Model the fold of this input.
Amino acid sequence: MHGSGTGSEVDPTPGNGVDREFLALERELSVFLRRARASSGEMAREVHPELEPAAYGLLVRLDEAGPQRATELAAYIGVGKATMSRQLRALDDLGLIARDPDPADGRAWLVRITDEGRGRFRSVRDARRERYVRKLADWDRGEVAELARLLHQLNARAESD
Done:
C-alpha cells in the first residue's frame, strides 16, 4: 500500500516489546488525524464561516442516518450532553438543523438537517470526494475499497469500546 510520504520511518529500539507494525500504525494515524482535523476545519468553514469543525461531523451523521435524538447523536459522536447541546444550538442558530417533536415520545425532540444545511453540506462533501478521487487516482480500486473496509473495521471497533 502507499506510505504517508512523511519520510520519517521509525526504527523501534530492539527488545522494547512494541511491534514495528503498531509503531507504524501509530505514526500513520497521528499524521492522518492531524490532517483530518485541519481538513474538518476547512470543510466546516466552507459549509458556513461560523460553523465549528466539531459540528461538521453532526451534519455528516444527520445526512446519512436521518433525524435522531440529541442523546443518540452524543453517543454516536462520543461527547457529553452539554457539548452536544452547545453544538446543536450553534447549528440551529445557523439554520443548518431543526428540531421536531418525536412522534414516539412527545417529551423528546428529533434533530434533522434542514434543506439549507443539506445543500451546503452536500456541496462541500462532493467537493471533498472529488479531491479524494484526484489524490487516489493512481490507486487500484481494490486498494481504495480495502482502505475503506479497514477504516470501517477500525471505526466499528472504536464504537464498541
Observations:
- The CA atoms of residues 3 and 133 lie 17 Å apart.
